[in-house]
Amino acid sequence: MSVEFIWAIVQVAIGLGFVIFVHELGHFAVAKMCGVQCDKFMIGFDIGGCKISKKWGETVYGIGIIPLGGYVKMLGQDDDPSKIAEQIEQSRLDPQLEGVEVTGPGGEKYKVDPRSYLAKSVPQRMAIISAGVIMNIIFAFIFAVIAFGLGVPYVPSIVSQTVPGSPAWQANLRTGDDIVEIGNVEDPSFSQLTGKVTLADLEQGLPLVIQHGASGTKSTVTLHPRQQDGKGLAKIGIVSPYSLQLIKEEPVRTGSAAAVENGFEGGDEIIEIQGNPVENYQELIAALVAQVDQPLEVTVRRDGTPAESGNENTIQGGKKVTLEVPPNPMRRLGLVMQMGPVIATQQDSPAQAAKLPTGHSIVAITTPTGRFSNAAGDQPLDPLSLPHLLRQLTKENDGSTIELSLSDSTNLAVKQRKVNWLDSDSTPGTPVALSSLGIAYEVRNVVVSVTDNSPAQEAGLQAGDELVAAEISFPQADGGKTKTLPIQLGDQANFPMLIGTLQRLPIETKVELTYRRGEKENQVILQAKPDSEHPVYLVDRGFLLQTLQRVREAKTVAGQFQLGWDRTAESLMLVYRFLQKLGTQVPVTALGGPETIAKAAFYSASEGTAALLVFLTMLSANLAVVNFLPIPILDGGHMVFLAYEGIFRRPANEKFVVAMHTIGFAFIIGLMLFLIALDRGLIPRNL
C-alpha cells in the first residue's frame, strides 16, 4: 500500500467528516447563540452507545460508530412529539414550575425550561434548523475558492470519438472538435457537459459552440440528447478526450500490435509517427488512419517531467525512444451478418448531398476496384469490414464515386470523402458508421454466410442461423479468475459491440454463442482470429492513453471568488434540477449511496487536493439541497412544521407529526437500503 494511497484515504476521511462537521456546527453555533442547551454534538451516530466522546461543559462531543451523518441533541428537541404531553402533564401537576410558557398543539399552555429548544420563538428555531444548510453553502463556496486558487484539474470538452447514429455524430462532430461554450458556460469541462446533457430539455435541445479541430472555425449547433429506448440517462454520443501519454499502470493492450515489441512503458508520450511530429490526439488518429495497414515507427518521450503549465499530460525533457509497431488486424469469428437498414445520415456528408434515404438497406456496392454484395461472384457484403475496406479505398482513390444499390431498388452514385477521424464501436445498440459516406446502419443478428476456414465454420455455423446471445470469457490481467461478460443479441443490434469488444480483450478470449436454427437453440464456443486471406486492419493499435487533463487556476483573488461562486451556484442548481427530473428523465438508478460517494471522493483525492475540494463543494451543495427537502425528520421537514406553527400560533397536531416522522424515518431507511443495493450491484443501474 503506497503512501499516496494512504494519504488519499486520510484526505477523504477528513473531507467527508468536515462536511458533516460544518453542517452540525451551524445548528450548534446558532442554538448556543439563542441560549439553547446542547447536550450532544456528534459526528456519526452512536447506536448502542458506541462512540468516542468527551464532555466539555454541558455538551458531550463525540464520534459515533456509524459514519453516515451526525446530529446535535438540544434540550427539548425530540422527534417524538408525544414528549410534549409529558411536559404538559408536569406543568398541570406543578403550577409553580418555573420556566417559559409555550403553546401546545391543542392551544393549551405549559412551561418549559428557559434553555429548551421549545422555549425559543419560531424565528429563532427556524434559524437553528436552517443554520446547517447555510453552513454547507458557505463552506461549499470556501472549498471552491481555495480549490481554484490551487488550480483545479479538469477534462476539457474535446471530442475524441462520436457514437455512430448519435446526435453528435449526426451533427458531424469529429475527433478534435472542441466544445467551447454550452449556454452561458465558457470553456466547459467534460463533467459540466455531461451534467448539461443529462438535464437538458430534450425537446428544445442543447445549444453548443464548436471550434472545429480540422479548420479552426467556430459554429453553433443544437443537439437533442437522447435516451436509449426511452430509458437511462440522456446522451449525445461523445467520448471524452485522450492525451498522447500512455497510462502508467498498463501502457498498451495485452495481445495488441503495440504489445508485440513489448517496449512501451507507462508514462511514455507519443511525439512522432514515422518521424512526423504529432501534437494531439487528433493528429495521432489522422496518422494512424493514413497508414492503417503499414508498420509504423512510433517515437515516444520517456522519463521526462510534467510541463509547468497548460496540459497536465504533456511532459518535457527526458529521452526519445523509437519503436516499430506492426499493423493490427481485426480478429473475427468468420460470420458475415445481414446488413440492416440505414438509420441515420450526417450533416454535410456525401450521403446527405446525394439525398440517400434512411430506412432502407444497402444490398450492393460497386466501387472502382470491385463489387460487394451477397450474390455469387461478388465480394461478400460484410457490414463490419465494409467501413475499413472503403476507408482504404479513399486513401488510394481519394474522392472516388461509388454506386449504392438499396433494398427499394434505388441506385445512387455517392462521392466518397477521405476519413481521418475515428468513430466509437463499443456502445450497446450502436450501429456501424460508414464514415466515408456519412451513414450509419444496423447489423442484424442473422448469418448471411460463413467465411472458409474460420472459427465459425469449424464450429458448424451456417447461413440462416440467428444469434440469440453471447457470453465473453477472458483471463484477467492479474491472473485471477476468468471474467465473463454477457451480451444480449436476439432483438438487440449488439453484434458490432460484440466484435468491437473482442478487439480490446486478450487473444485467449472465448465467446460462447447461442444461436437459433429452426426451432432449436444451440451453443458453440469460438475464439476470434484474424482472417489471413482477406485481412482487415484496425486504426487502434493497442495504445492505452491517459485522459486529457488541463488545469483551471484563478490568476487573481477576484478571479478565485468569481470561479468559486460560479461553481457553488452551478452545483446547487445541478442538484436541484437533478431532483426535479428524478424518476422521469433521470432514472432513480442514477442515485449513488455511501459507497459511490466514498469512491468518488477517493478518486478526487487521488487527483490532488484541489480536485477533492471541488468534490466537497458538490457534496456540500448536495447535502444542503437534500437536507432542505420537505421530508419529515430532515431539516426541511422541521421547517415545514415550524412554518405551520408560525402561521397558526401553535404546533401541528401531535398524532399527525408522529405519523409524519414515522413515514419520514421509514422513507429514509428504505432509501438508504435502496442506495446500498445500487452500490453493491444488487439492483442493475441500466444507465
For this structure, what is the CATH class of the domain at 331-535? Mainly Beta
* CATH superfamily grouping of the domain at 331-535: PDZ domain
**CATH-defined architecture of the domain at 331-535:** Roll
Number of helices: 15
CATH topology of the domain at 331-535: Pdz3 Domain
Count the strands?
39
Strand order of the largest sheet: 2-3-1-4
Query: What is the gyration radius calculated from CA atoms?
Result: 31 Å
Category from helices, strands and their pairing? alpha+beta
List the helices and strands and how they pair.
Elements: H1 3-33, E1 38-45, E2 51-56, E3 59-64, E4 66-74, H2 82-93, E5 100-103, E6 109-112, H3 122-150, E7 152-154, E8 161-162, H4 167-170, E9 178-182, E10 185-186, H5 190-198, E11 206-211, E12 218-223, E13 226-228, E14 231-235, E15 238-239, E16 242-246, E17 269-273, E18 276-277, H6 281-290, E19 296-302, E20 305-306, E21 315-316, E22 319-325, E23 328-329, E24 331-332, E25 335-345, H7 350-353, E26 362-367, E27 370-373, H8 386-396, E28 401-406, E29 411-415, E30 432-434, E31 439-450, H9 455-458, E32 466-474, E33 483-488, H10 495-503, E34 510-517, E35 520-526, E36 529-530, E37 537-538, E38 545-547, E39 550-552, H11 557-581, H12 594-607, H13 609-627, H14 635-648, H15 654-679
Parallel strand pairs: 1-3
Antiparallel strand pairs: 1-4, 2-3, 5-6, 7-39, 8-15, 9-10, 9-11, 11-12, 13-14, 16-38, 17-18, 17-19, 19-22, 20-21, 23-37, 24-36, 25-31, 26-27, 26-28, 28-29, 30-31, 32-33, 32-34, 34-35
